[in-house]
Amino acid sequence: MSEALGLSDAGEDAAVRAAFACWFAIERGTCAVLCALYRAAGRPLSAATLAGVAMSTPKAVVNHHVHRLRQALAEEAIDFEPAAGYSLTSAGLAECRLVLRQIGEDLRRAS
Description:
Helix 3 packs across helix 5. A two-stranded antiparallel ribbon has the order 1-2. It has a single domain, classed as Arc Repressor Mutant, subunit A, CATH 1.10.10. The longest helix is centred in the last third of the chain and has 21 residues, at 90-110. 69% of the residues lie in helices and 7% in strands. The protein has helices at residues 2-5, 9-24, 28-40, 47-54, 58-72, 90-110, and strands spanning 78-81, 85-88.
């Protein structure tokens, strides 16, 4: 995606974070967790790994950020594997992709 638009990885990450934060009405730490899960493309990430990207604690990831994401995204968007961690389900990934497409279309129409 970044090559087609001429964006750096950091620019692309910032655009994805802004889109998710706006669309799902989530705060910075929760958005960081969602972006990490989205980038992992279905691969599980531990609460400790997610805490690192959210500048939080594993306990806050479990008790706040994942809980908040389960409220903001459609049902069955986040999966948990006890030995591996959290991941976006195929439905969760599809929802995130749809959000990015919709916001892109809205921006194109506005320009």
